[in-house]
Amino acid sequence: MTSDSRSARIQMLVAEEAARRGARVGVVDVCTAAVAALPVGGAGLSAMSRTAPSHPLCGTDSISEQLEELQLTLGEGPCVDAFRHGSAVLIPDLLASEIQDRWVVFADAALEAGARAVFALPLQIGAISPGVLDLYADVPTVLDAGELADALAFADLATLLLLDARIDETNAPVDGAREDRGFEDLGGYRAEIDQAAGILTVQLGVGIDEAFVRMRAHAYLRGRRLTEVAADVVAHRLRFSPDAEPRRTDEET
Question: 150-161 burial, b for 16+ CB within 10 Å, e for fewer?
Fold first, then answer.
């Protein structure tokens, strides 16, 4: 299966979940569709940042909700490592001795919660990582190549949806504030968001994480989508400064 056909199939599954809810597509639909399509019992997603508090956004059941809370509270686990290193962390059996040694507290707590296998997939566009998608199974589980590719496609779509959403005061997506938007439109903004963050690292003299936070904060304060702000930055209609509020270049003329 080609990456394009896999992506189209994943998008259809997620759109079907949103239709069942009678709502616009959101990250909760990604989690629900992933559980239906993969050999896992539940899924959770957390928004994460190196410069701001991390927090769970959704969980498909009580176990996935517990796993998200545990990892963010303890500061250890597959989710934390996936975010820190920017790569998938696949744990087919939490009872393995090396896993028990790796996460002394989390491994036992996750087992007690009802998980046996955990798969953490970072949400990424270039150097930007706004969170992690976690999947769990209640029995030892290994994802084959096709299943892993599907899991990564779900994570990719969750990234686009999370970045395109308006942000409320808790930094959680507000589905009701989003206009209807096709998946193709979302995909078209991938490079633009990454490019805009790169431009801001130069304008502000900061790292990519801080640049992304500044761009996201500006979007929130102005009630705009992150994708809209990114487009303005790339088109040089909006310039950020270390010592002043961002301003549109047409204000200088």
Answer: bbbbbbbbbbbb
Cα angle 71, 75, 78 (rounded to 5 degrees) comes to 50
Is the pLDDT reported for residue 61 higher than 90?
yes
Residue corresponding to tokens 């998608």: 133
What pTM was computed for the model?
0.74
Nearest residue to 32 (alpha-carbon basis) of 45, 17, 52: 17
pLDDT > 90? residue 173: no
Angle, CA of 47, 49 and 81, to the nearest 5°? 85
Q: How far is CA 97 from the centre of its chain?
A: 30
151 touches 34 (CB < 8 A): yes
Output the pLDDT for position 50: 77
User: Are 57 and 173 contacting, i.e. CB atoms less than 8 angstroms apart?
Assistant: yes
Whole-Å CA distances, 114 to 71, 100, 138: 15, 16, 6
Query: For residue 190, what are its two tokens?
Result: 């991938």
Give φ, ψ of 140 to 5 degrees.
Answer: -55, 130
Lateral strand order in the sheet of 128-137: 55-59, 42-47, 128-137, 117-125, 89-91
What is the residue-averaged pLDDT of the chain? 84
**Is there a contact between 67 and 134 (Cβ–Cβ < 8 Å)?**
yes
Closest CA to 133 of 10, 231, 6, 219: 10
Distance CA 158, CA 5 (A): 17
